[in-house]
Amino acid sequence: MHITLQKSIIAKQSSIQITGSKSESNRLLLLKALYPELSLNNVSNSDDSNLMTHALTTDSGLVDINHAGTAMRFLTAYFSVQEGREVTLTGSKRMKERPIKVLVEALRELGADISYVENEGFPPIKIKGKRLTKHKVALKANVSSQYISALLLIASKLENGIELTLEGEITSVPYIKMTLSLLEEIGIESSFNGNIITVKPGVKNQQPKTLTVESDWSSASYYYSIAAISEIGTEITLSSYKENSLQGDSVLADIYKHFGVSSVFNNNSVTLKKEFSNVEPLTLNLKNAPDIAQTITVTCFALGIPCDLTGLHTLKIKETDRLVALKNEIEKLGGNIEITDKSLHLSASNTIKEMVSIETYHDHRMGMAFAPLALKTPIIIEDAMVVSKSYPTFWNDLESIGFKITK
Ligand SMILES: O=C(O)C1=C[C@@H](OP(=O)(O)O)[C@@H](O)[C@H](O)C1
Ligand SMILES: C=C(OP(=O)(O)O)C(=O)O
């Protein structure tokens, strides 16, 4: 379904309740499967979390996680320790192009029985669950942090826990720290010193516990972008958020100061307010927050601000090659953008072509990142339901703050 997006009357003050973080949810759903005494609140209603829940409750021998990267990686580790169970884990056409070798080799090193069904190094994979007896393993840390989180999530169930040696520059570090913090919240002890992470076996004071998932900060990024592009004085309140988040993308509150957007935390919510205009160029390294690269690029384009973004080496293996996708779509709109394998440079521009049809490449973040441009000019978003991967009610929420959507 394609939609046309236009600005109608944007409310001066509005509020939105955003669903739970898909990253926190997918970790906690796995931990709940390992430790059933856990209860969870505000679990994400995203496709990726629904797929995770289904995968953890089905007894089928074939589990299809479609586009969900975290589910693919976390479940590879999970099924490796389900003794006596045999599962083939598969996904979408794109998932079969997203590498998993680093994780499979690390799990094999620990004793897991995993084989490739089609292409070496990529899903689908066949996993025969076993008791893993080894605990020391080294793995490359510069491809995806999800491999590391996957190992950490099952570590407390291994006889001797785990000792990981991370090789190369560690990417997406906040996601690793999120995993360790959630382990700590349920009583699993760990340490992260330099490039060594250890997790102890078992849980301290195992007892029923309720954890509340914070709302999704990557989803909040689209409202930061809307606030940045809006008139001075526009306020948007988002819930449920806290100032000390486990999610690395909460760095948005700092980053968007550059665009004149302030963030005030109060009563479990954050209010974004456009305070002033600024057209200074932006230079940022996003190796710790790769999922907000598209949002920030589009904000800069809308405001005519040049930007240099680095640390984007993981973008090529996400839902689509996000660097190429950004270049294609920004150029269609009349912008000028240069990309390498790990960075992009957007030039200043002051015109945006009208009624351009934005391709989304099966990537939720392409649809959501380009939507705020409708504040400047009418725009078409192709395959708009792609957003359900992380944020199913995105278009309804945009309507509620004054965007006009025509199907
Ligand atoms: O662990 C997680 O929940 C995630 C880690 C990041 O992936 P990489 O570590 O592959 O960059 C991020 O892009 C993804 O959306 C979610
Ligand atoms: C990269 C993402 O997700 P995943 O890797 O879990 O598919 C994302 O949500 O931007």
TrEMBL record:
InterPro entries: Enolpyruvate_Tfrase_dom (IPR001986), Enolpyruvate_Tfrase_sf (IPR036968), EPSP_synthase (IPR006264), EPSP_synthase_CS (IPR023193), RNA3'P_cycl/enolpyr_Trfase_a/b (IPR013792). 3-phosphoshikimate binds at residues 22-23, 27, 144-146, 172, 291, 318. Its EC number is 2.5.1.19. Transmembrane segments: none annotated. Phosphoenolpyruvate binds at residues 22, 69, 98, 146, 322, 365, 389. It catalyses: 3-phosphoshikimate + phosphoenolpyruvate = 5-O-(1-carboxyvinyl)-3-phosphoshikimate + phosphate. The active site is at 291 (proton acceptor). Pfam families: EPSP_synthase (PF00275). Keywords: Amino-acid biosynthesis, Aromatic amino acid biosynthesis, Cytoplasm, Transferase. Its main location: cytoplasm. It is found in: Cytoplasm. It is an enzyme of class 2 (transferase). Residues 63-398 form the Enolpyruvate transferase domain. Pathway: Metabolic intermediate biosynthesis; chorismate biosynthesis; chorismate from D-erythrose 4-phosphate and phosphoenolpyruvate: step 6/7. Catalyzes the transfer of the enolpyruvyl moiety of phosphoenolpyruvate (PEP) to the 5-hydroxyl of shikimate-3-phosphate (S3P) to produce enolpyruvyl shikimate-3-phosphate and inorganic phosphate. Monomer. Belongs to the EPSP synthase family. This is 3-phosphoshikimate 1-carboxyvinyltransferase. It comes from Flavivirga aquimarina.
